[in-house]
Design goal:
This protein is an alpha/beta fold. Helix content is 32%, strand content 23%. Strand 22 and strand 23 form a beta hairpin. It is globular and about 80 Å long. The structure holds zinc ion (ZN).
Length: 625
């Protein structure tokens, strides 16, 4: 199940985010006026100053397209597109439907299919069950067409449908979603109501989302798209912060479904049409969902490298910004290191100088990173200022603790392309910052001086919980961190637990942080690590290039190439099977049978260590029928 997650205090959109940040500065000033001296005056002044500065360009502006792994290479299969004459006349623009059919033809041809067109119920009945039938946007269906599609599924024929299939009759009069519900296997269905923007989130483990960064948020053009009660690992409708929207009559509102019926038919449904993404990046991801679903429904094996090492479902890093009330870091350091929980401290280095005795304590308890020299916003500043700033803070930490830091949390979690370049050029490895909730996993940026990783925080931090929402009890703090963890576990993402010294100011609050980390450990499938280990893993994982080919009998061959300069350990593959696992024998690599586990989401295969330049060839043999 997609775990219930907390709603953000207020719906925030990308467009109003900048305004919200400026507001934060004003809010903090207000708090001081009210004599609630939460932040040290140095922070207040700087926040106010920063609020008047120009905001850095949003990350989207300098980020290249999301690189997607290759799709499986497949040939020698056929897909048929159903052209519904009645539905064609439903769209006011006469060219809309023919153009949509053309687009589908090119998408299917692009993934290796020979494409045929069908235009009648008898045409559907004549199709072999083993071939794929695609029915795009067929909203108006007459009884014969309905019966032919239904019979096809009952006979194990595979199907990909989109949008409001059969919601209107042969005269395009409204009849409702019963027919769609039946085919999609959903208890409830309805239309998505709401204001723009319209978002959808893809969790890791859904075949439809194979190859996309886990938790990717896609924006669609706003229309009354279709939502139905989702099952585990379905793609779901969400708000900006990746929280699911409710389905009609409760549950999670699904936007896409891939399921196998009792008759063995693979049925994929999408609650929207093709070419309805808000922007080009979204459109590319949206197309990939359709391509994945078509390949799977047509009987092909899909695979991807699991996001986390050693078979973990999600990851967690417990971090603290060490700033005002610097000494409060000690209690967290001592209590959590006693429990063996990896900690990462991001230190304001001007303040660190006043506490030479703490370097050893924090260093012993975890990893030391920088939270800038002076807590001034760095994103948005000119190049020379950014470079000088990061060099200063790196030198400060090296002098303080003996080693320059790998990680940087930019003040207010804001950064731009110059921040990435400056941090990488001065020897840094990663940033811990906001990614605008674009997805739930780290991202790698190629800058001039090399590669730099951004670990995103897409769960609430202690500031959001305690200050913004006013939930000051330790129990609430723990509950909110655990809710963030469950959300990231559902998505296959990173829970970047973020705390501040001025807020984690009592034994009970330290205890709440420890207890949330303990919950992650008890879950058994969460990777608890230092932030730098997570960044290093993400780089290592990116060295693996996976390609999937298929033999004539549709056995899959998976090639894993290490393109990098270092060995990659503990990687797992996630293999999505079109049929039940008994159809396939265990994965083999030469004479070796690889460790693998079958789960609801597919087969997970443990890879041996892959040395640089090495290419593994893994066969997933289909048993003879
Ligand atoms: Zn800070």
């Amino acid at each position: 199940m997609v775990a219930p997650v907390t709603k953000p205090p207020r719906e925030r959109t990308a467009g109003t985010w900048g305004a919200a940040i400026v507001l934060l500065g004003a809010l903090v000033a207000g708090l001081v006026g009210g004599a609630v001296l939460l932040w040290r005056s140095i922070d207040i002044d700087l926040l106010l100053e920063a609020a008047t500065e120009e905001a850095p360009p949003p990350v989207d502006e300098f980020v290249a397209q999301v690189p997607l792994p290759e799709l499986p290479t497949t040939t020698g299969w056929t897909a048929h597109i159903y052209m519904s004459q009645r539905s064609a006349s439903f769209f006011p623009e006469p060219n809309y439907y023919p153009a949509l059919i053309d687009r589908w033809e090119s998408i299917l041809a692009g993934i290796g299919a020979d494409v045929g067109l069908v235009g009648s119920a008898t045409g559907i009945e004549a199709l072999p069950a083993a071939e794929l039938l695609v029915v795009p946007a067929a909203i108006c269906l007459e009884a014969g067409e309905r019966a032919a599609i239904r019979r096809r599924v009952e006979n194990g024929g595979h199907l990909l449908v989109t949008w409001a299939l059969g919601a209107r009759d042969e005269n395009c009069n409204w009849v409702g979603f019963d027919y769609l519900r039946e085919l999609a296997g959903a208890e409830t269905a309805g239309t998505l109501e709401g204001e723009p923007p319209t978002y959808m989130v893809v969790p890791h483990g859904s075949v439809v989302a194979a190859g996309l960064p886990p938790g990717s948020r896609l924006e669609l053009r706003t229309e009354s798209w279709i939502t139905l009660r989702a099952d585990a690992s379905d793609v779901f409708w969400s708000d900006w912060a990746l929280n699911p929207l409710p389905a009609p009559e409760g549950g999670v509102g699904g936007g896409a479904v891939a399921r196998t019926t009792r008759s063995g038919a693979r049925v994929a449904w999408f609650g929207y049409r093709l070419d309805v993404a808000a922007r080009r990046r979204d459109q590319r991801l949206l197309e990939r969902l359709f391509e994945n679903a078509a390949l799977w429904a047509a009987g092909h094996v899909l695979a991807e490298v699991d996001p986390w090492p050693a078979g973990h479902r999600a990851a967690m890093a417990v971090t603290q910004d060490v700033e005002h009330s610097f000494n409060n870091s000690v209690r967290l350091a001592l209590d959590l290191s006693e429990l063996d929980i990896p900690l990462t401290f991001f230190v304001v280095t001007q303040l660190a100088r006043e506490h030479p005795e703490l370097a050893e304590v924090l260093n012993a308890a975890g990893e030391l990173g920088s939270h800038s020299a002076d807590h001034r916003q760095i994103g948005g500043r000119v190049w020379a200022a950014q470079l000088a700033g990061v060099k200063q803070t790196r030198a400060d930490i090296a002098a303080w603790s003996g080693e320059p830091p790998l990680g940087f949390r930019p003040p207010r979690e804001l950064f731009d392309s110059l921040t990435l370049e400056a941090w990488r050029r001065s020897g840094g490895l990663y940033l811990a910052a906001s990614n605008g909730a674009r997805n739930a996993v780290p991202a790698i940026f190629d800058v001039r001086s090399g590669r730099v990783v951004v670990l995103p925080r897409v769960v609430d931090d202690d500031y959001a919980i305690i200050v913004t929402r006013g939930q000051t009890r330790p129990d609430s703090l723990r509950a909110a961190f655990v809710a963030g963890l469950e959300k990231m576990r559902a998505l296959g993402g990173l829970s970047l637990v973020t705390t501040h010294t001025q807020l984690i100011d009592s034994g009970r609050r330290v205890e709440a942080v420890a207890s949330a980390a303990q919950a992650a450990r008890d879950a058994g499938d969460i990777w608890l690590a230092h932030a730098s280990e997570i960044a290093e893993w993400w780089l290592a994982r990116s060295q693996l290039e996976l390609t999937v080919r298929e033999r004539d009998d549709r056995s899959a061959i998976l090639f894993v190439l290490n393109k990098g300069a270092s060995a990659v350990e503990s990687a797992w593959l996630h293999v999505y099977l079109p049929e039940e696992p008994a159809t396939f024998a265990a994965p083999e690599m030469g004479d070796i049978i690889l460790e693998s586990h079958y789960e609801a989401g597919g087969l997970r295969v443990r890879l041996p260590t892959v040395i640089p330049g090495e290419s593994l060839e893994i066969l997933l043999p289909r048993r003879p029928a």
